[in-house]
Each structure stands twice: as C-alpha cells, then as structure tokens.
Amino acid sequence: TLGMPPLMPTGIAMCAELMGYGFTTGLLARLFPRKIGYSYLNLLLAMIVGRILLAIAEFTLAGLQNSSFSFETFLNATVISSLPGVALQLLLIPPLVKLIQKRIETE
Questions:
Q1: Which string of DSSP letters, residue by residue, matches 22-90?
Q2: Which of 11, 93, 80 is nearest to 44 (CA)?
Q3: CA-CA distance, 105 to 95, in Å (whole number)?
Q4: Are the CB atoms for 36 and 73 separated by under 8 Å?
Q5: C-beta separation of 79 from 48 below 8 A
Q6: Closest C-alpha to 88, from 99, 100, 78, 96
Q7: What is the pTM of this model?
Q8: Nearest one of 74, 22, 19 to 43, comparing CA atoms
C-alpha cells in the first residue's frame, strides 16, 4: 500500500480536511493584512477548521459504515499524534510565506 491510508474512510475524510485548509487559508489571506503575525493566525485557524471538517467526515463515514469511532480515538489519531507536525509547520511556513511575499514584491 506504499504507506498510504485506505481510500475509504480515511482518504475521503482527508479530502474534507484538505478542502478546509485550502478554503480557510485562501479566504483569510484575502482578509488579513500581509504581516507575519497574521500568517501564524491564518495557519492556526486553517488547521483548526481542517481538523473540524476531518472529525465531521470521520464520524459521518463511521456512521454510514456502522463502525465505531470514538472521540478519544479521534483525539489520539489526529490531534495528539500530529503535534510535532503542527509545531514544525508553525515554525517553518509563516517565515517562508514572508520570504516569498518579499520576493514577489521586489519583482
């Protein structure tokens, strides 16, 4: 399986999560000033919206499949285990966005 999650239900739920990331980031990028602090806020809010949509999708798909999916399972699988990745993204992405914005403005 090349380490990829199964399409049903994980892949479908991840599509909802990624849609939340993209939509939130795009919307907030238009609304917020182009300052580094707002990049952090944008990223954090996008992560929260994405995780909420992931939870909704996971619980919906579990209900459709008559399988159990507890809130504790969700927290362990998608929140607790992802904290190192969240920290890494918060450290790297806003400075990269700022760097790219500066490069675009100088061209």
A1: HHHHHHHHHHS-S-HHHHHHHHHHHHHHHHHHHHHHHHHHHHHTT----HHHHIIIIIITTHHHHHHHH
A2: 93
A3: 15
A4: no
A5: no
A6: 96
A7: 0.83
A8: 22
CB 62 within 8 A of CB 77: no
pLDDT (tens digit per residue) in 35-59: 989 999 999 999 999 999 999 998 8
Tokens of 9: 């239900």
Tokens of 5: 């999650």
User: Which residue is it, tokens 């399409």?
Assistant: 7
The helix/strand count (H/E) of the chain reads as 4, 0
**What residue has token string 């362990």?**
76
| 44: its two tokens | 């954090």
